[in-house]
Amino acid sequence: SYVLTQSPSVSVAPGQAARITCGGNNIGSKRVHWYQQKPGQAPVLVVHDDSDRPSGIPERVSGSKSGNTATLTISRVEAGDEADYYCQVWDSGSDHPGVFGGGTKVTVL
Amino acid sequence: EVQLVESGGGLVQPGGSLRLSCAASGFPFSTFIMNWVRQAPGKGLEWISYIRSDSTTIYYADSVKGRFTISRDNAKNLLYLQMNSLRAEDTAVYYCARGRVASSHYFDYWGQGSLVTVSS
């Protein structure tokens, strides 16, 4: 089954940029989606289809993809951005197509 | 406003059964794909099941296949997850999530979750 790999943690100072990566075999052929989850809360979609932002998500949140890695970038990080972030793909053609990465904890210093 | 509200969680003994429900409102439920996603305590998200709007296509994760059954009642705007032969490793918060498809399938709205604890 398809595997997505994320670094367990990222630390960033306020005002700097946080970059969260998601790796997977031939990920360039798949669309990557990203979710933010704060403690005790349900996940929230922040980017879909590699780089599209749902309404209400600020422009300083962006997604990109290059080679075998997708990246979620949060510019000008604020204390409220501290959360777990998960990437997700839909592995069409598989009998169990829903796949999440292991998650990355973003800590604002 | 889109709302998804799970119910039916609780404490169950190993080998027991439980049925979760997800009440949907604020959107045309019968036209949307729905999913169940779970999260064990302190762990990451795990997708476990998908059901197409007309129930003609269903998928399960290997971890629950043969034990869990997803279903829906479009007349009542309800999504279900019947969980049988429960194990300790099924202990988790269970979320229902609405599916969207643009170039790929993702989850645009989530419920608040329902905690299932499997323990003797």
Question: What features would you highlight for this structure?
Answer:
heterodimer; A: 109 residues; mainly beta; six-stranded mixed sheet; four-stranded antiparallel sheet; 10 strands; 0% helix; B: 120 residues; seven-stranded mixed sheet; 11 strands; 54% strand
Brief rundown of the structure:
Chain A has 109 residues and is mostly beta strands. Chain A has no helices and ten strands. In chain A, strand 8 and strand 9 form a beta hairpin.
Q: How would you explain this protein's 3D organization?
A:
The complex is a heterodimer of chains A (109) and B (120). Chain A has no helices and ten strands. In chain A, strand 4 and strand 5 form a beta hairpin. Helix content of chain A is 0%, strand content 45%. Chain B has no helices and eleven strands. In chain B, the strands form two sheets. In chain B, strands 2, 4, 5, 6, 9, 10 and 11 form a seven-stranded mixed beta sheet that branches. The termini of chain B are far apart. Chain B has strands at 3-7, 10-12, 18-25, 34-39, 45-51, 58-60, 68-73, 78-83, 92-101, 105-110, 114-118.
SS field, number of helical segments of chain B: 0
The number of E-state strands of chain A comes to 10
What's the alpha carbon Rg of chain A, rounded to whole Å? 13 Å
Number of strands of chain B: 11
Task: Give the H and E element order of chain B.
Answer: EEEEEEEEEEE
Distance from N terminus to C terminus of chain B (CA atoms, Å) equals 40 Å
Calculate the mean pLDDT score of chain B and round it: 97
Overall SS class of chain A: mainly beta
Biggest interface pair, residues each? Answer: A-B, 29 and 27 residues
Low-confidence stretches of chain A: none
Count of helices of chain A? 0
Sequence of secondary-structure elements of chain A: EEEEEEEEEE
* Quaternary structure classification: heterodimer
Shape of chain B: globular
Low-confidence stretches of chain B: none
Strand content of chain A: 35-45%
Roughly what is the average pLDDT of chain A, rounded to an integer? 95
Helicity of chain A, in percent? Answer: under 10%
Rounded to the nearest angstrom, the distance between the terminal CA atoms of chain A is 36 Å
Rg of chain B is: 14 Å
